Queue: 2 jobs
Job 1
Amino acid sequence: MERLCDFNLSLEVLEGCGYNCSDCAVDKTFEPQGSVHPDAEQLLEMVGNLKALGFRPFEFTLGPTDIASSSNGLALLQSPLVKRLAEHFGSMVISLSLLSDRGLKELAGAIDAVMGGKRLRVITPVTVKNTKNVKYIQKLQERLALLKGYLKETDLYASYLTINMFKDNVEQFDADYHRTAMGISLGPRTTVEYSFAHSRGGFENLLRQEQFKRDLYKFTQIIADNDESFSGQLLHDPFDGIELGYRDGKLYYIPVVMEKFPIFDQFFEIPKPWSTETVMGFKEEQYHTNLVTFTSHPTCADCCHVNTCTHGDLHTTMRYLKIDHCPLGLKNRTDLIRTFGKDLAYCGQALEQLPVEQRGRHHDS
């Protein structure tokens, strides 16, 4: 059965986070304009157009920080734009550090008013070290259960346990920590996500670029050598959906390098007016440029994953960062090969061949 892509939309509109987590990568000096920016209304038309073509609006995210401690979280949940977006999307995603239970009851009431009859998914950041802190994990479970109890009309369906892979987390990470993390359940069905948040600081700084390359390579080698069941996620399914991000009156295509990898640079900016044509035009342009660049690339051309990376976002990211080697170090790893069907022309042509548990969060029904 053929299917069209899912698409996700993130709104970077929260401000005033009350925490100072050691592994946070969000630039707190940036002050988002919120959803009141007049250009934000164009998002509704774009979403409607994509939906009319058969694309599935899957998740919309209110971010980038903890919504319960933010200064404008409740106000945004009551905004007309968020309410109208909620009519299109099946799930809303929020970040909750769960370091406190303050404000959870009020938050639940606001979510019920927007997402009644639909699903909520919660991103909870955790450090590598705290994956082995039993009391810490228990507190997260208790507070998530508390939120679930407060929700009367919304299904707290899933939790994303997110580990930002930089700074101390990278230094401490090893196969044992990975096994521990993969065994954690926060109550709702739990997915462990490893995020490389270096991109949030921008890549004008060459030292940050080099740090990202080193951190990503170290992580992938540990994973590929110790967890075959996870290895397929190292190479992003190019038919797994489209990620878009709204920030300060601009819309960005968000590449996926295992997980969302937001780079708020003009390179990834979707031109106005935002529409199906401009979004798909960006995607198609990247694919054709990748095709020309990497089918004759000295490293990539003879790799068994060249089609996957060309259709997906890895080659686009490599071009942006001017990386001339495989940043994952996974050339011709045959245990990572995925079959997407004979026609690789575009994501809308993919055949649904993979079992649900291998598809990642986009196909979490």
Job 2
Amino acid sequence: MSMDNRTLVSKAAIDTSVLGTGGSMNPEQQKEFMTFMQDYSVFLKRVGIIHMQSTTRHLDSIDVNRRAMRTQVENAPNPATGTATTRRRKLSAVGVIMPYDITFQFMKENIEGGSINATLAKLFARQFANDTVDLAWSGDEDDTDSFLGINDGWVKIAAEDADTHKVDTEGSSDYLNVVFPSLLTAMPKQYFQLYQEEDKNRITLFCSHGVNRAYKRQLQERSTALGDSMIVDGKHVTYDGHEIFPVGFLPDNVLIATPFENLAFGIFGQSLQTYHQVVPRQARHEYTLMGDFDMEIVNPDALVIADEF
């Protein structure tokens, strides 16, 4: 199915019928709601989306050691030389709610007439996707902010997990020679074998837009064809074959190196609900989106975080 056709199906699945009497989305609507979110958010297309069948789910990962191969010995024991390290993480979905009130006056005056519900459905789904990614990075259950305190995000999880690798860049702004090399040096060697193709590793360098622009400026200062290209195009750049992916919700001092699929976003599909209620005494329409989700790091050993610890 093409992107255009898929988007049309997604829009149809969350249009007026979903914002009508309200209630749980059926399985097809749940699937298309997630498709719409992923089509809207470039980031959600690439992380590890986990469709949970209940509000909790275990994430299991396994690593095997290197150089376990031996010469076969005939008619004698061949003892195990390989070892496997297993890790178990847990997703615990937290219920969230996104309520909106729309006045009767707006509904009467809007230029779209009866199609306003379809427009609202798309706007709500886009904002749900945006808030989801924001919380996935910035969430901190210890924060008193009513949004940030919903759940711990990947930065908080990575910073507090003893099995992730921490790098103190001492506030350096030399991304070319200090910061990015430090992140990759701290990554265990076995994860550099995760190649998609020659010289393109799946380990991604996540940083703020400010850091991304600063790194581009450093490249612009170099008298090379690459430096010239940084001036005229806005394409993503790489460092030593690793994609640099700017994230709008990261502060400049936080950088993370890890594969996209190591960042798990789990959503309890049956929890996706929409409600539309008309409240005449208050002269308004009440729209409500509800869902349960959680964030986790699948393998903390495959993540490096720099946060000036």
